[in-house]
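Researcher: I'd like a candidate sequence for this fold, 606 residues long. If you have to choose between options at a position, lean toward the conservative one.
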């Protein structure tokens, strides 16, 4: 997974590319590079490491003048993160340069063919076959060469290609990877994400799979896979530019944690009108033909699905199954026209989730997508799309993305239950009021736990942590452990508290930190018994509980409190202090919080 950006216009391209790459660094950051056309030559600058290294090498773009260029920030998939493997890649004759996000599945065969024809490869990447194919097919017609080369490719790719013979022209191609065009006046752009362009233009064109486009300073022309020019609508980007900046916080992750009350309100408020839930594009009558709900996602989105399962089943009385998309896509799933598939993805571009979604649709399932990014692949493929409206999330570790996904699941569950008549009117009103109170309660959690940085100082040197809980508490434990491990690099695992005696209690030893989640009143007494068990074996227990639960204070070594929330909705409030704990532990350990090692924001390759 990588980020690509391009510019053609009257400005010096390199500074624009560098600023765009900074916004895309969440997509990968083990190498970076740019290619700028100078006269009739292409100058390429590449570095290992962060965009800052590229800025230093090019003196913020001053050493690479030229008004047309392409840029790339990389997370390695083929070939180690080295200067040689960094993009852009050039053709042997130096006439072409390419940047690529995605993966070329048939690159081995193409590389063998090109090598036999005399083309020399500098890198270990799959991407380099693309630029040599373009060179091989070039007969003076840039467009035809791009078309012929892209028709040979199998896999997922978003490409940006420049040619020294046509210094004011860029061709871009999309197939199963995000690619957006930015429409300016006397200048035009492309990028993997609107955040890379929003400082320059708010007008965007979203390419579909199989389409490609020609960008010049004065025009954008879009073509289908046969080369026929097609008309595309221009969309308006509504995100606030400031939403993509840190706003005074040390890290984007902390900013995004603190934004969650606002994000929750943005998700809920427009959808609760005159005492009713209104979900745009979703007809609750669809539920009358649904016999089974299948939720699929990856990472934190999968854990949001695990938490949402309890609420949907309790309210709708329909069986809900939650599957990892990377497993579901190969599982020969038992779905049909009576299955509702709910797909969760922050970016809307998660490769495994897209593949699982396509497979289930092929078998007849209706698809409801919950995503954050407007115009993303999943949003376009789904029968119904519900946006989280969380605003841009820059930190690799999701926070408001997870909580807003969960809120949309709550809205869906309550709306569907009313249609199915599985919830009484009084209970519906009570839960609707409880939903409306959640943004305020999220803010209360942030306000009532000033001691979390102190707890982080106590626990940050531990080699491992265990998170335990039951029911919805267990679902939250899954996400809490993931947050801890992905940004602090501390080994953290979550266990269903009732399973401790079936093996995992063997791991408890003197001083072992155990984070016990005790917010679901229906099972809290049982979890407290599990706390007694691990305490008897020397564990140090940090409990997360409702403020009213004073009994637990005598059992736990440390406490984090949340306001009392209905058990069906408490997961969205309960996760907040665990996000903060992970953040402060990572800060104590000197970790790169926004860009944890080996990870990227949007996993667009398998």
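Model: Candidate sequence:
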């Amino acid at each position: 997974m990588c980020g690509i950006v391009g510019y053609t216009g009257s400005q010096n391209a390199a500074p624009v590319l560098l600023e765009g790459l900074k916004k895309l660094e969440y997509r990968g950051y083990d190498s970076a590079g740019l290619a700028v056309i100078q006269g009739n030559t292409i100058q390429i600058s590449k570095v290992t490491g962060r965009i800052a290294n590229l800025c230093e090498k090019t003196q913020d773009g001053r050493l690479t003048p030229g008004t047309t260029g392409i840029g790339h920030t990389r997370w390695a998939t083929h070939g180690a993160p080295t200067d040689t493997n960094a993009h852009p890649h050039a053709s042997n004759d130096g006439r072409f340069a390419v940047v690529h996000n995605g993966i070329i599945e048939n690159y081995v065969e193409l590389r063998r063919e090109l090598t036999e024809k005399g083309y020399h490869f500098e890198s270990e990447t799959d991407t380099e076959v693309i630029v040599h194919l373009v060179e091989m097919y070039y007969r003076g017609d840039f467009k035809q060469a791009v078309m012929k080369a892209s028709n040979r490719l199998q896999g997922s790719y978003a490409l940006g290609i420049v040619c020294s013979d046509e210094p004011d022209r860029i061709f871009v191609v999309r197939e199963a990877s995000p690619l957006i065009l930015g429409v300016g006046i006397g200048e035009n752009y492309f990028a993997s994400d609107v955040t890379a362009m929003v400082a320059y233009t708010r007008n965007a064109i979203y390419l579909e799979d199989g389409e490609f486009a020609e960008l010049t300073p004065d025009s954008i022309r879009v073509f289908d896979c046969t080369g026929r020019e097609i008309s595309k609508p221009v969309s308006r980007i509504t995100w606030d530019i400031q939403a993509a900046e840190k706003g005074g916080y040390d890290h984007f992750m902390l900013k995004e944690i603190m934004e969650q009350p606002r994000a929750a309100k943005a998700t809920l408020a427009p959808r609760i009108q005159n005492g009713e839930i209104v979900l745009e594009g979703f007809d609750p009558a669809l539920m009358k033909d649904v016999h089974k709900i299948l939720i699929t996602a990856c990472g934190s989105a999968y854990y949001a699905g695990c938490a949402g399962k309890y609420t949907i089943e309790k309210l709708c009385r329909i069986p809900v199954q939650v599957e990892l998309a990377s497993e579901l896509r190969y599982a020969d799933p038992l779905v049909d026209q009576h299955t509702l598939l709910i797909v969760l993805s922050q970016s809307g571009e998660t490769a495994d989730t897209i593949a699982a979604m396509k497979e289930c649709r092929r078998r007849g399932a209706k698809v409801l997508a919950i995503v954050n990014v407007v115009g993303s692949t999943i949003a376009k493929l789904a029968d119904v799309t519900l946006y989280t409206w969380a605003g841009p999330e820059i930190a690799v570790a999701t926070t408001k993305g997870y909580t807003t996904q969960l809120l949309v699941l709550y809205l869906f569950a309550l709306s569907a239950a009313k249609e199915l008549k599985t919830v009484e009117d009084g209970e519906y009103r009570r839960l609707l009021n409880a939903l409306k109170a959640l943004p305020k309660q999220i803010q209360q959690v942030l306000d009532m736990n000033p001691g979390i940085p102190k707890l982080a100082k106590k626990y940050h040197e531990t080699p491992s942590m265990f998170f335990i809980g039951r029911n919805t508490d267990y679902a939250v434990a899954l996400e809490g452990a993931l947050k801890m491990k992905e940004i602090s690099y501390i080994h953290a695992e979550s266990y269903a508290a009732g399973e401790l005696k079936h093996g995992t209690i063997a791991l408890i030893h003197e001083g072992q930190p155990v984070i016990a989640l005790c917010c679901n009143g229906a099972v809290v007494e049982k979890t407290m018994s599990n706390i007694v068990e691990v305490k008897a074996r020397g564990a140090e227990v940090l409990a997360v509980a409702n403020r009213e639960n004073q009994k637990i204070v005598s059992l736990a070594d440390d406490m984090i409190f949340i306001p009392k929330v209905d058990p069906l909705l408490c997961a969205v409030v309960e996760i907040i202090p665990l996000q903060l704990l992970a953040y402060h532990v990572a800060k104590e350990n000197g970790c790169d919080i926004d860009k944890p090692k080996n990870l990227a924001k949007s996993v667009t390759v398998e």
